[in-house]
Amino acid sequence: MPGMTIKLVVLYTRPDDPDAFDRQFLDTHMPLVNSIPGLQRAETGRFVAVGDTGEHIYHRVAELYFADQAALEAAYGSDQGKATAAHFYDFAPHGSRMFIEALDD
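^ that's the sequence the OP posted. Answer follows.
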């Protein structure tokens, strides 16, 4: 919907070497993310515990905010967006997922 804030939520599954993954994520991937045109805000964090009885399958989350769906599409159509997506597919652990969330006002 036009004018509705859109958030790209990326869930990274647990890597074989969490410390090496975090170094690459923070030192290489996040600078790529932060270069994406139209990005309003980016947040990331590491999951430290599970709050229910389910399996602890996710290691990290990244949340990228855009003004609307058109801004997200333009961002990922840019050279910086394409480079960021390519890097994701190169280094993200198997089973990592991306979701597009429309935020409620």
